[in-house]
Amino acid sequence: MTMWLLTKVASRAVSLSISSSSSNRCVLKETTRAVSIVFFHPLQNTPQPTTTKSSSDGRRWFSSSRRALHRVDSSASSSTSSSADALLEVVLLGIPSDVNSSFLRGSALAPPLICQALHSDATNSWSESPSMDILQDPNFIVDGGDITIDASLSSITPASHFEQIQTKVSEVLLSGPTTSNKKKTRRILSLGGDHSITYPILTTEAFAQHHGIRPKHPLTILHLDAHPDLYHNFQDNPYSHASPFARLLEASLENNNNNNNKNNSDDDTSCLVIGRLIQVGIRTMNDHQREQANKFGMVEVVTMATLEERHFDATLAAIKGIKGPLYLSLDVDVLDPAFAPGVSHPEPGGLSVRQVLQMIQAVRAPLIGADVIEYNPDCDVQGMTACVAAKLVKEIAAKMLTT
Ligand code: MN
Ligand code: MN
Q1: 189 falls in which pLDDT band (50, 70, 90)?
Q2: Which of 127, 216, 285, 287 is least surrounded by Cβ atoms within 10 Å, i.e. has the fewest?
Q3: CATH says 5-402 is which class?
């Protein structure tokens, strides 16, 4: 693939110290009803009923009685299809943190507005491809609420509130329900917040454990953004929203080195190891961040210039070819401001909503987690960016349930 700019270099490491607590918000309606889980395999159109479950454990489910119920065959029991082993559940988790924004704050206001747009009567609750009524069926998506962020902690260090995020991420991943004697695999789709939150999410110990990430089974990150977010230390804040991928790659290289230094070379314990960071839609690359990309050696940059129309199909093919566990980090400013004006750093010349949807729909690798971040309601025009973010959330959730 000629459009992937691939570079290889060495490493350095950084460590994080953090402290504090967590809780919830962003409530929708509770329901209790018996339903079947239906999986749509991306390569087949026929729903595959897998098992039956009563959602009576008191969690807060997404519900919308105003829409036609997603009907499934409640008599269907455990299927012999391979999807019977893949009991997946997406948890929507609001992370209203914008203390590490560099120019404008406001993205902390985003999560409830995205939820509101998700359930607006202006649209229905179906994703496009795969076509699923993802909001109707409480077995598909769970409302994890919004994490309560104590912004005052940021006066201690810019990363002091990260423990609140990590505590909640752990709690969500470890508390998945058991259905027909099988524990569901939970996948978190977080709603930001500024881009700094991707670092605490992915460095949560339970994240690597839950998804089996380890040196021999590394994570690929697909990062859609106008900005590389690779600054070593932006405006004297190493945890700035302009730096999360520098910190993540450092953590990954440190984990890899630690593993290599162990006496037992067969030891392959879970920890965050990133095999590839694929950045798409970039249009603000500068010398410093180019050096950073080269230094880390696993960064592949697809700028908007290389994404001109003649290369777009090849980019979709490259996304289809991604193997292994995949995390999608979607900064809403990857979109052209004409489509999504509600961002703190509008950068003209970006992707269309349709192009981003095509990229999401091209994913074939197991999409084990995702974030939709940097929507800033203070900059929005008549809620159009909330509407776009909600559309992306539906499409990402459908892909997370079927890969
Ligand atoms: Mn970003
Ligand atoms: Mn950005």
Answers
A1: very high
A2: 287
A3: alpha beta
Q: Out of 171-185, 312-326, 374-388, pick the least confident.
A: 171-185
Q: How many percent of the chain have pLDDT more than 70?
A: 77
Q: Edge to edge, what strands does the sheet with 88-95 contain?
A: 5-6, 299-303, 274-282, 219-224, 326-331, 367-373, 185-192, 88-95, 141-146
Ligand 2 midpoint to CA 221 (Å): 15
Q: Are 329 and 225 in contact (CB under 8 A)?
A: yes
Q: What is the largest CA-CA distance in the chain?
A: 61
198 Cα to the center of ligand 1, angstroms: 9
**pLDDT digit string (tens) for 270-301?**
999 999 999 999 999 999 999 999 999 999 99
What does R_g of the chain's alpha carbons equal in angstroms? 20
Give the ligand whose atoms come closest to the C-alpha of residue 373. Answer: 1
Least distant ligand from the CA of 198:
1
Q: How far is the CA of 38 from the centre of ligand 2 (A)?
A: 35
Does 112 have pLDDT greater than 70?
yes
Tokens 């999608």 appear where? 328
3-state SS track over the chain: CCCCEECCCCCCCCCCCCCCCCCCCCCCCCCCCEEEEEEECCCCCCEEEEEEEECCCCCCECCCCCCCCCCCCCCCCCCCCHHHHCCEEEEEEEECCCCCCCCCCCHHHHHHHHHHHHCCCCCCCECCCCCCECCCCCCCEEEEEECCCCHHHHHCCCCCCHHHHHHHHHHHHHCCCEECCEECEEEEEEEECCHHHHHHHHCCHHHHHHHCCECCECEEEEEECCCCCCCCCECCECCCCCCHHHHHHHHHHHHHHHHHHCCCCCCCCCCCCEEEEEEEEECCCCHHHHHHHHHHCCEEEEECHHHCHHHHHHHHHHHHCCCCCEEEEEEHHHECCCCCCCECCCCCCCECHHHHHHHHHHCCCCEEEEEEECECHHHCCCCHHHHHHHHHHHHHHHHHHHC
The answer to whether 147 touches 94, Cβ cutoff 8 Å, is: yes
Gap from CA of 10 to ligand 1 centroid (Å): 24
Mean pLDDT across the chain: 80
Structure tokens at 119: 């359930």
pLDDT value, residue 267: 62
